[in-house]
Amino acid sequence: xxxNQKTLWLTFGLLISISISTATQAGETGTVIRAxxxxxxxxxxxASTDKISPGDQVExxxxxxxxxxxxxRQTTGWLRLLSVKRxxxxxxxxxxTDVLKLATGQAGTGQVTxxxxxxxxxxxxxxxxxFNPQELGLLKSNSVSAENAQQFASAAGLQVRQVEYLPAPxxxxxxxxxxxxxx
Length: 183
Fold this sequence. Notes:
26% helix
């Protein structure tokens, strides 16, 4: 089986994101950064058990995929990873510049780490990532043969489309200095 470089890099990225330890320190706190619903299970289709608001403080109990298990007041439930910022809330300076930065999306620490589109992995977690042959086996077990994929596509009414590669970018010509001593 021939594997192209793009597939290899995608697989590598998935392996790293899967194999990173998802253990969360007991008692770690988090701050809710967007309104959301607390869920009974780590699924978007799970029943909502409570509503949360930006600024609410939660205790992070566990992590599963893109979900944190949190305790909010007396309720325990699951919250989307992107709705929580780990750690204590910071006090705003309250200046017009801070408001402008917030409105333009420039506010923040600049220390956001993203892997496979999921935020919240710390630098330590990334550095501590190790090869996990069991996860690689799990990844391979989710693959299907070309024949099975073709049968699925046919059953779903999908049609083959040829998508051309984008043209190679044109390199800019080196510019000649204008004016000066005229040499």
